[in-house]
Amino acid sequence: MTTTPQAARRASPRKRRPATPTAPDPAAGLLPETEPVRLLDPDGTLLPARADYPEPPVEALREMYRRMVVGRRFDAQATALTKQGRLAVYPSSRGQEACQVGGVLALRDDDWVFPTYRESMALTARGIDPVEVLTLLRGDWHCGYDPALRRTAPQCTPLATQCVHAAGLAYGESYQGRDTVALVYIGDGATSEGDFHEGVNFAAVFKAPVVYFVQNNRYAISVPLSRQTAAPSLAYKGVGYGVPSEQVDGNDPVAVLAVLTRAVAHARAGKGPFLVEAHTYRMEPHTNADDASRYRDTDEVEAWRDRDPLARLEAYLRGRDVLDDAAVAEIAEQAETYAADLRERMNAQPPVDPLSLFDHVYAEPTPQLVEQREQVRAELAAATEEDA
Ligand SMILES: Cc1ncc(C[n+]2csc(CCOP(=O)(O)OP(=O)(O)O)c2C)c(N)n1
Ligand SMILES: [Mg+2]
Questions:
Q1: What is the pLDDT of residues 331-363, one digit of tens each?
Q2: Cβ partners under 8 Å of residue 250, min gap 6
Q3: Could you tell me where the beta strands, DSSP code E, fall in the chain?
Q4: Are 131 and 342 within 8 A, CB to CB?
Q5: 282 assigned to active site
Q6: Distance, CA 221 to ligand 1 centroid (Å)?
Q7: Where is average pLDDT lowest: 113-122, 134-143, 281-290?
Q8: How far is the CA of 159 from the centre of ligand 2 (A)?
Q9: How far apart are CA 230 and CA 55, in angstroms?
């Protein structure tokens, strides 16, 4: 006699499976909040306090305001210098002041910064001489400052390569028992580059103390964010590598500093890298050589003007009675002096020896380099003879 499988099941009552305990969520603690962290309203009103992101000390916020004011004035001066032919090119970071300054304020002096071409303001906020900062953009072959002394890598134009450099440096530092942190500035567009993924992955596997700080300013030159990624937010890119992440309102200086402070503490404690995405906006064209009206309309730019990070912090500090008209005027004057000094020094044309281009490529120059050097030397000599 044959029985159907259904009949067999009915005949032997099903044994109850023991209840399995719920497995812990492997992504717990890695995902960012669904909305960017915000501690200040756009009008400068403080939102309810958060235990996970305590408000930075008010002296730090006042100093942040000062550096943002000087930074914005520096930025305007650098843009003006392109029009006078003193700079070859300048990528402005107007509108991104909270990120530019917040990144360096979250660090110790002996931590490392890995900037892109857009971070001139961050480097001046770090205390590097503005003339040195602008040396590369002036058209020189070197970055102007001593990277080892300033703990600041040269400003990187090849997108995302600094993600790998930072992972290596930070790993090396921790390998030697030091608690140095490396902070990488990177743009939204550059997160599509292979080097971003390789850097983050390496840092995660080897627990390198790196903070990857994405300034999502909505554009990669003319390419809008919608054509850059299908991810819910760029911060979500961390989870695939086992890297915790957060997103923050990048035009809220208080939140930017609070979130980066926590990210840096995470890395310094030996817990590996952290990814922060700041939602911000580039108010100016990509560089002075770009015409932004070809790919975005003025309504969009105007809407972001209402979220100005400087006005927001100023309103907050005034509301707390730690900033008044006299202090605002004094800081504005400091910014003017800073810009005037920069203008004056950039107007002096430093003598440049084209042959120095070959000096530091390799410790031992290759035969090709020797040949190229000789070629340039001969061309220069011929040109001098012609002029004579
Ligand atoms: C590897 C590489 N590819 C392309 C470029 C050309 N390029 C220079 S800036 C840029 C846009 C980058 O956008 P994003 O990362 O969002 O930074 P942002 O300029 O907005 O600060 C591109 C494509 C480059 N410099 N390096
Ligand atoms: Mg961008």
A1: 999 999 999 999 999 999 888 889 999 998 899
A2: 36, 96, 98, 99, 215, 216, 217, 256, 278, 279, 280, 309
A3: 112-114, 182-187, 210-216, 219-220, 223-224, 245-249, 274-279
A4: yes
A5: yes
A6: 7
A7: 134-143
A8: 11
A9: 32
Q: For ligand 1, what atom is nearest to the CA of residue 220?
A: 13
Task: Tell me, in angstroms, the distance from the centre of ligand 1 to residue 359's CA.
Answer: 29
CA distance 274 to 212: 6
Tell me the pTM.
0.92
Ligand 1 neighbours, Cβ below 6 Å, are 118, 157-159, 187-190, 217, 219-221, 282, 286
Q: Which of 221, 287, 290 to mutate to test the pocket of ligand 1 (most atoms within 8 A of CB)?
A: 221
Does 360 participate in catalysis according to the annotation? no
Tell me the CA–centroid distance for residue 292 and ligand 1, in Å.
Answer: 15
Distance CA 273, CA 30 (A): 11
Q: What single-letter amino acid sits at 244?
A: P
36: which 2 tokens? 């960017």
**DSSP single-letter state for residue 153:** P
Average pLDDT along the chain: 94
pLDDT of residue 16: 64
Strands 274-279 and 245-249: parallel
Q: Give the chain's end-to-end CA distance (angstroms, integer).
A: 116
Active site residue 295: yes
CB 189 within 8 A of CB 159: yes
Q: How far is the C-alpha of 334 from the C-alpha of 341, rounded, in Å?
A: 11
